[in-house]
Write a structure and sequence with these properties.
Length: about 250
């Protein structure tokens, strides 16, 4: 177990294992949605909103069925997906970030609903349209580490937040990408207050009055890594604002 101490902003990183990477390919099915060369959904069930339309999410977003969505706890996880038909598929896998749940997708086996661009990228050059014409196809997939070069974890304060109801969304989490638990700590306090997962990638605490600045601690779902950033949300925070830390996994 290692600890990383950061200057300027106090933080600790407890890493009991490497970032989640699955070396074994598993079977699934895949479809696509939107325009044939489109970048994917606008918003989605994880709550990332317009972020999915811009880099680094753009064209890399994907929806999944209930098996991988996990009631929203699968939001932010990254996967490599590759199709199998060698007559039309390349050996190249596409990397997708889970930002949405696929309505009506199978709930008995893993399923990916990819953007038109990502789906077509699995084909041999020049056969993008032909692959999309097949509709649903068998694929293989595996978990991979999320990478956001040049980005640190950011905390978006959701609209409607008050001193008694504070809701946060985590952005640009490298490594596992998912969240198993979140806590905040008020100004001049040593006590971590547990937040509750409400929907998608959104977490909330109902208490108060809550007094900033707030330190935030998150623990990943997959490997249980913990990271905390001191006073990352300032005393004069406002709803709909995003506050960027100086650290990442």
């Amino acid at each position: 177990m290692a600890a990383l101490w950061c200057s300027l902003v106090f933080c600790t990183l407890l890493a009991s294992a490497a970032a989640v990477v699955d070396l074994h390919w598993k079977q699934a099915t895949a479809t696509w949605y939107g325009s044939p060369e489109g970048d994917g959904s606008n918003g989605g069930a994880c709550g990332y909103g317009s972020m999915v339309d811009v880099k680094p999410y753009r064209a890399r977003v994907g929806a999944v069925g209930p098996v991988l969505f996990k009631g929203g706890e699968g939001c932010g996880a990254c996967y490599k997906v590759r199709c199998l038909d060698r007559s039309i598929c390349s050996r190249r896998a596409v990397t997708v970030i889970i930002t949405d749940e696929c309505p009506g997708c199978p709930n008995v086996h893993p399923h990916f609903d990819l953007s038109g661009a990502a789906f077509g990228r699995m084909a041999v050059s020049g056969n993008n349209g032909q692959l999309r014409n097949r509709g649903e196809i068998p694929v293989i997939y595996r978990r991979t580490s999320c990478k956001y070069p040049g980005k640190n974890i950011a905390y978006h304060v959701n609209e409607g937040s008050t001193d008694f109801w504070l809701s946060l969304l985590v952005e640009f989490e490298s490594g596992d990408g998912d969240i198993g638990s979140m806590h905040i700590r008020e100004a001049n306090s040593n006590q971590w207050l547990e937040m509750t997962h409400v929907w998608g990638a959104n977490w909330v605490i109902i208490a108060g009055p809550l007094r900033g600045p707030f330190s935030v601690k998150l623990t990943t779902l997959s490997t249980g890594k913990t990271l905390s950033a001191r006073d990352v949300i300032p005393r004069n925070w406002t709803p709909r604002a995003t506050y960027t830390s100086r650290l990442n996994f």
